[in-house]
Amino acid sequence: MNTKYIIVAGGVISGVGKGVATASIGKILKEYGFKTTAIKIDPYINVDAGTLRPTEHGEVWVTDDGGEIDQDLGNYERLLGTTISKINNITTGQVYHSVIQKERAGKFLGKTVQFIPHIPNEILERLKVASNNFDFALVEIGGTIGDYENIPFLFAAKSLERQIGEKNVLYILITYLPIPSHIKEMKTKPTQQAIKSLSEHGIFPDIILCRAREPLDDVRKKKIEIYANIQSEFVISSPDISTLYRIPLNFEKEKLGTKILKKFGIKKRKKWHFKHWEELVRNIENPPKTVKVALVGKYLDIGDYSLKDVYISINEALIHAGANLGAGVETEWINSKFIENKKFKLKDLSSFDGIIIPGGFGETGVEGKISAIEYARKQKIPFLGLCLGLQLAVIEFARNTCGLTGANSTEINPSTRYPIIDILPAQKKLIENDKFGGSMRLGTYAAVLKENSRILSLYKKTGRLLKDKEQLKEMLGKKEQRFRIGRTPIGKNTILERHRHRYEVSPDFIHFLEDSGLIISGYHTRLDDVNLTEFIEINNHPFFVATQAHPEFKSFLEEPSPLFTGLIEACIKRHKKRK
Ligand code: GLN
After folding, report:
1. DSSP string covering 554-567, please?
2. What is the CA(323)–ligand 1 centre distance, in A?
3. Which residue owns the Cα nearest ligand 1 atom 6?
4. Which domains does the chain possess?
5. Is 503 in the pocket of ligand 1 (CB under 6 A)?
6. Model-level pTM greater than 0.85?
7. What is the per-residue pLDDT across 15-31, written as a single tens digit (0 to 9) for each?
8. Among 173, 142, 153, 148, which Cα is nearest to 70's?
């Protein structure tokens, strides 16, 4: 089957869940037996999300192949349950960058290089590469219809349609119907305007998804149907829901998947048996019990609003683990600066069932986080450290258990006496030579887990241990395999997790840490045989675990991340005891 494209555009306002809706449609098509992928178009000039402050667009999502991408790709992976490459994110910056590079290299043979056709052509080429070998490619155009920046992408969609034929392209408009509080009536006018804007680009939606606080009534459905000139079965109501994992089920109830296939004139390959998925969703909506987790981080405030999207994957990974263990997870975000200036009292952490220290950059709030870790360790509160969270747990242990007073990361104090977390010069060189990740360790890396460690038992339970090199071939090219595996033995308690950091636990200090009882329960072995610390844990504690990786990037509702499962199990135990 040739690839069929589903172009998703948004009307009226952004932030109505276009990404989640796109991913949910993808989920349904995948469950019907089709090879499905999703592509995100970001009309900004940035080449990728790597340099964006998290408060700009929320979390930076990391792909296996080391892309630093808009968080929507995270929703795609979470719902599609497949690895999605960095090429599935197309930004205006990438498009112009490569057109200009090609022009400089004389690739246009002296022709005038112009906005039309060269920019849409480049977009088209990228769409084709990302969708190669798939039955369906969902293409989500970021922003809102009517934005200037969208124009080349809509133009590219039309060119695609011309090239592969109308019958292979379907347009979905996701719109928003406001209910102004002073009139309490759902208004269709902005949707009509979005339909009109889209038609100015020669695009007439095949399906309109109506997002609103409440379900769409018949009167409004009729209005949209007439205005857009489509049958009412293709106007779909999509009211607010309590969890995003309910959306694929609601779409299935509305027969959205079947309607899409009908438009393409194809039949389902198999049925979606969603019983298990539904059970998990019910656990999220009505959990039999709820545990409380404190997330001690920063990047939380912009103006008067705090931005939870910064840690969206951690939040989702907690939800996944909880749903599978029959527990709701209530997360409270604690600004670590408030621990430092005593606005938040450390002892108040004891009212939580677990504590997470997430990833982060720079020195702000670091001492507050270290105090929280010390508290978790001493008061035996379940603790999970992620990336910076591992680095700070090692610093805390070095200072308070090994007696290395003032131990620090050179990111935080470049002149520390004990640079226990440091940039390893050879590491910097290696990364630069192989050109993966610029100066960062980015993307998936292999690690071997220590026999009898708690971490190994958690990974074993979930079947995440790598069996052999064959498995790797599907995920990584040859050169990437060499670099990302290094000399880490495969098939011997080996796992893969994603990374995004510059600093490492300095190998020079490992013996101090181990002598004082810190268990290094996982290593990545570099090509030059140097071991990089990937996991740590301590004994005689309900759960004290940290990783240099970001396991939250590989967590799915039906297959939660092992470390999050371990944390929530420990939280449930503490919760029971506290009761
Ligand atoms: N700032 C630390 C480093 O670069 C940790 C990064 C992170 O937590 N993602 O190594």
Report:
1. G-BTTB--HHHHHH
2. 29
3. 501
4. 4-273 (3.40.50.300), 287-422+502-578 (3.40.50.880)
5. yes
6. yes
7. 788 899 999 999 999 99
8. 142
